[in-house]
Amino acid sequence: MENTIERASLTGTVKAWVQLSRPPFHTVGVFPFVLGTLLAWRLDNVFNLPLFILGTVAVVFIMLATYYGGEYSDVMEDRLSASMDRNAFSGGTQVIIKDRLPRQYPHVASYVALGLTVITGLIIQFKYDTGPLTIPLGVIGILSGFFYSMMPVRWVTRGVGEMLIGFCYGWLPVAVAYYLQTGRIHSVIHFMSIPIACTIFNVILINEFPDHPADLIARKSNLVVRFGKEKSAVLYIVMHLIGIAGYVVSVTRGLPASALIYYAPVAAVSLWLCIMMGAKKYTNKKLLETMCALTIVTNLGSALAYILALAFMRP
Predict the structure, then answer these.
(1) Which domain holds residue 240?
(2) Which of 6, 32, 99 is closest to 301 using CA atoms?
(3) Which among 42, 240, 293, 303 is least buried, having the fewest CB atoms inside 10 angstroms?
(4) pLDDT tens for each residue of 172-204
(5) How many domains does the chain have?
(6) What's the predicted TM-score (pTM) here?
(7) What is the pLDDT of residues 88-142, one digit of tens each?
């Protein structure tokens, strides 16, 4: 009987940690990193497998540090959100709120993940001599991600958190992946990162809609709290349109035209989301949840369309 209880307890703890770590959401960081690596292979005929693996590990570690820090720091608003308009994409994982793990666990884990990020970055720099920008770019990612929710900076309450996420999940992983392989940053990256950055910005923005009542009470001054839902809806639409335009422009900068074919369904979803936002369908709780899910699809789809186009590009 005791063994059964212990196994059940262990299983519950493991499941709680997996939920807290949000494995599906690691794709939003890993896909752009894969894209930058693939770009280096296609444009420069360079691929260093150990660097790719270490770089991917570093990306995952900094995402873990960010996610754990958010769970620890957002307890008040997550508890409020659970009793208000929360959906599957807002209010955190609720692992701490439901007492499945003590609150201090993700706090400690965030620092452990941060330390592992630093160690991995130093190995990349000093073992493989990847260039002078490796550490500065890594520091930017660490400071932006770790302090997104964590004090004393807490970017999310300063009106710049969403923009930093757009940068760190858009331009940064593509540029860093390419830089680690080649020692330089290709100009096309500046354009192809636009749709990825705009859509991940929108992922964060739309997830703030269901959290809005809780964030107001908790005085979490993110963009939706600052602007209100109507103005934030306009911002959401503008970002999607910029993302679509950026994708088209990036193809004119030397990427295979097939990228537009792969991207067409993503653009269609983006335009539908713009129409829904313009019609204020975010007031419908069930439809808002669908819109949150599809916004993630546009982000992953933007990166995946590039990946497919490069993977099947003729030499």
Answers:
(1) 2-311
(2) 32
(3) 293
(4) 999 999 999 999 999 999 999 999 999 999 999
(5) 1
(6) 0.92
(7) 777 778 888 888 999 999 999 999 999 999 999 999 999 999 999 999 999 999 9
